[in-house]
Specification:
There is one protein chain. By secondary structure, the protein is α/β, with parallel strands linked by helices. The chain contains 5 helices and 3 strands, in the order βαβαβααα. The chain is globular and about 40 Å long.
């Protein structure tokens, strides 16, 4: 499961609730790996609690949302060319992308789910 929003606790908001409940449902009959972002607001005990509920939890530091100058301009150019809004691109972590790419290419997953459109940017069209 790819989730740019940390999906725990499942009472924090709509995205967390949907992602968490899907994860718990899938966990009943499948091995589940969750790859997600964390920021300073996510307490270590929440990370550990979620880690206990899945087979694998991989966390990456949430990218800064305050980009300007050339980086911000590049996101607008990418939006015009590829159609991915800057608000979605701002959640993109190159380290997380590399990890996901490596896992998929190594055949580690039977399926990949991304419950929210902000997560779709991590899925390659050829997959």
């Amino acid at each position: 499961m790819v989730s740019v929003t940390f999906p725990y606790p499942p009472t924090a908001g709509g995205t967390q609730v949907r992602t968490y409940n899907l994860m718990r449902h899938l966990q009943r009959h499948h091995n589940v790996t969750v790859v997600t972002h964390v920021d300073k607001k996510v307490p270590p005990e929440d990370i550990e609690e979620l880690r206990q509920q899945v087979d694998t939890l991989k966390v990456f530091r949430r990218p800064s949302l305050t980009e300007s100058g050339a980086a911000g301009l590049n996101k607008w150019v990418n939006f015009v060319v590829n159609g991915t809004p800057p608000s979605v691109q701002s959640h993109h972590s190159p380290a997380m992308q590399t990890w996901i790419d490596e896992q998929v290419l190594a055949g580690k997953f039977d399926a990949v789910t991304c419950e929210h459109s902000a997560n779709e940017q991590y899925l390659r069209p050829e997959w």
